[in-house]
Amino acid sequence: MRIITGSYKGRHFDIPRTFKARPTTDFAKENIFNVLRGYVDFDGTTALDLFAGTGSISLELVSRGCKQVISVEADRDHADFIRRCFAKLGDDRDVLVRGDVFRFLKRCRQQFDFIFADPPYTLGDLPQLPDLILGGNLLAPGGIFVLEHGKDHDFSAHQRFAEHRSYGSVNFTLFK
Question: Which CDD domains does this one have (predicted)?
Fold first, then answer.
């Protein structure tokens, strides 16, 4: 796994083979961040990375200048890996929350300029995530929410739908 651009551009982290998480591919990550340049300037923003997995998106967000990133990950080994990655960088802008995303969303009172969610594609509650996040006052005015999902989901009828992008088997839906 590598960081594509920003202050940590080119840094690599070896993901243990035992991990169940699938990091967003470099190809998909690079393309979605190119699209996001038209929506958000990450410098000085606050971001939320839900289902953080390997921490790939959190690392990218910090590298691109976010002042704070909250990474939520339930798996102990994955959370430890994220913690070690940021320790290697010597960067304290990531706040790691080890716990259930749905419990976190119910309790969170902070607003974010950018929210990214990469749940397991087979997650039964995946279709409810946009309403849960957007209805929970978590997205700051003018903010963007990106949901990574498989090809079986279509959110184009959602009232806050902005656009959809597909890169191979990886799909992203953007909400405003």
Answer: AdoMet_MTases
